[in-house]
Structures are given as structure tokens and as C-alpha cells.
Amino acid sequence: MPDFIVYLRCSTGKQQASGLGIEAQREAVERYTAQSGGTIITEYTETESGAKSDRPQLSRALAHCRRAKATLLIARLDRLSRSLSFVAQLLDANVEIRCADMPEANRLLLQMLAVFSEHERQMIRDRTRAALAAAKARGTVLGTHGKVLAAKHRADAQAHAECLRPAIVQARASGCATLPQIANFLTAGGHPTSSGGKWHPMTVRRILDRLELPPPNDA
Prior knowledge:
Layout: E1 3-10, H1 13-18, H2 22-36, E2 39-47, H3 56-68, E3 71-74, H4 84-91, E4 97-99, H5 107-137, H6 146-173, H7 179-188, H8 201-210
Parallel strand pairs: 1-2, 1-3, 3-4
């Protein structure tokens, strides 16, 4: 039976205080552990920005994994980082890694997902810069005009959708063929909507549209 060291991460101190995000991650890793017949030795929780690679709690978790010959278990890949260089460094740590939302993932798949995530992240940055530059060329005072704010909202919505792409792919691979089935899959996996509310078929449809993925049979 595998032994797991769990790593949980939330982005802000406010999320840490409220427990939002962390509890969903904890439920996901506990379900995975129960299904795999493994044992959780301990967990490490970090409050950090996803763009930062200096994470003392993650370093402690990896060191613990090496000492105990345990597997590092996370809820979702995006809980680690969307940086290719960081994930590559993590995969070079000689520690077995498992993602609760992607039980079939191996080291190669994790690297491929990291490459794709970083590519999408750069595309979002480029689109945002282009929108700001166009607004400035029109004489818009940046930071105060509604169109600039709308561009930021669109970029944030696209970034959230990209974080959900692996889960959508997994949902379809597991047999989810309708919008309600995908919504139930995302809810059960603890994947938050952009507003923190409940998943509905139309919410899923908007995510699919943002990701330019073909709609399921019932759409």
C-alpha cells in the first residue's frame, strides 16, 4: 500500500483563513487515498502565489517524501505551478508524484501538461498586453476605463478556464458525455467555478467555449 505526503496550497491569506480551496483539495486527496488503499502520513500546507517557486513547505514535503520513501500527493497540477521550469525541477527531485484528479498521470504527462499550461499563460499575457496597448493608442487612460477593466476580466476568465482544461479532458476520458455529467464531475472533484458557486450545464458550456472545445452530445 502506498504512503502519501500531501501538499496543499492556497493563493492568499484570506483563502487560508476561510479554508476555501484547501478543504476541497483535502477532500480530493482523501478520496484518492481511500480508492488507492494508501495511507496519508502527513500534510504540508502553503500560502503562496502560483508564480513563485520559493516554497518552503513544498521543500519540506519533498524532503519528507525522500526520507519516508513516500509519494507526494496533490489535488490538482495547477496547485503546484503553471511554470514549466518549476515543474521540471519538481520532477527532477527523485520523488514519485500523484495528482488526485488525474490518477493515470505519469511523469511524462505532467511535463506535457506543464508545457501546455505555460504556453497558454504566455498567450494570455500577450493578449492582455495587446489589449492594453490598443486602449492606450486610442487615448484611453489605463486603469480607469471600462474597456481596460473588461480586458482584464476576460484574461482572468481565460486563465481560469485553462486551469480547468485537464479536468475537462479527464471528465470526457472517464465517460462524461453530457454537460450535466461534466458539471457533476467538476463538482465532485472540488474544482471551483470562477465565482465559487455550483457547476451547472451552462457554466460548463461557457468553459468549453472559452477553451474552444467541441460541445458534448446534449449541447
